[in-house]
Amino acid sequence: MLLDRYEPYFFNSNFKEAASKAGWVAYRGELVLVEGEVADAQGRRKPPHELLRQAAVLAEGDELRFISGHMDELAHFSAFLEKYGPDLKPGAIAVIFVVNIDKPFTALVGDVPVVFVPLVQGMAWNELIDLVALEKSDFKGQSSADKVVTLYNALKGHTFKYPQSTVEEALKTTNNAKRETHGAV
User: Fold this and answer.
1) Long-range CB contacts for residues 154-158, cutoff 8 Å, separation at least 24
2) Within a domain: residue 180?
3) Which of 16, 59, 152, 158 could share a disulfide with 2, CB 3.0–4.6 Å?
4) Domain total in the chain
5) Does 30 map to a domain?
6) Is residue 185 part of a domain?
7) Exposure of 182 by Cβ count < 10 A (0-12 exposed, 13-18 middle, 19+ buried)?
8) Interatomic CA distance for residues 125 and 134, integer angstroms
9) Rounded distance, CA 74 to CA 118, Å?
10) Reported pTM
11) b or e along 98-125 (b: 16 or more beta carbons within 10 Å of the residue's beta carbon)?
């Protein structure tokens, strides 16, 4: 199973569970992009240097169907491709939220269109739901994994009308934006 292979890269996991559709498994949490150094003789690692935060992943057996999350810099996409790129095959949906881009765009990675959307504040999951106009009631009574399947099904029928670019071209236009967080003072 694909998500079993990803498990060493799970960080701050919310859940990994089977959906009601046989063979489908979903994960939400964070995914390691750049691992921390080995800290001791037992092989334990320091915290990761870079993460795909607020990640949502859906797999059908060994096939990646959907992956999404939030990264601070577009430059970290190369680390994403190293670990997860080989599983981006035709039919997969990838939506990546990035802090330091100004405008959304779509880039082909192999034969898979990857959607990049600017996000300085907010939650990737909520932004995805807004992009495909789902309502809270669309998820009522569903398990956590089935909610990811519902979002995936909505994304399958959604056309992103963002300009086509390459990641290399977009890297030339990144900005210095930092993630905005709000909370208790």
Assistant:
1) 155/66, 155/93, 155/95, 155/128, 156/93, 158/131, 158/132
2) no
3) 59
4) 1
5) yes
6) no
7) exposed
8) 11
9) 10
10) 0.90
11) bbbbeebbbbebeebbbbbbbbeeeebb
86 CB-side CA count, 13 A: 6
pLDDT digits (tens, 9 = 90+) for 7-37: 999 999 999 999 999 999 999 999 999 998 8
- Domain residues for the domain of 56 are 2-171
Q: Look up residue 1 and give its DSSP letter.
A: -
Average pLDDT, the chain: 92
Task: Decide: 35 and 52 in contact? Cβ < 8 Å.
Answer: no
**Are 30 and 38 spatial neighbours (Cβ–Cβ below 8 Å)?**
no
**Which residues, other chains included, contact 30 with Cβ-Cβ below 8 Å and sequence gap of 6+?**
10, 11, 12, 13, 51, 52, 53, 54, 55, 69
Question: In the structure encoding, which two tokens stand for residue 11, read together?
Answer: 């960080």
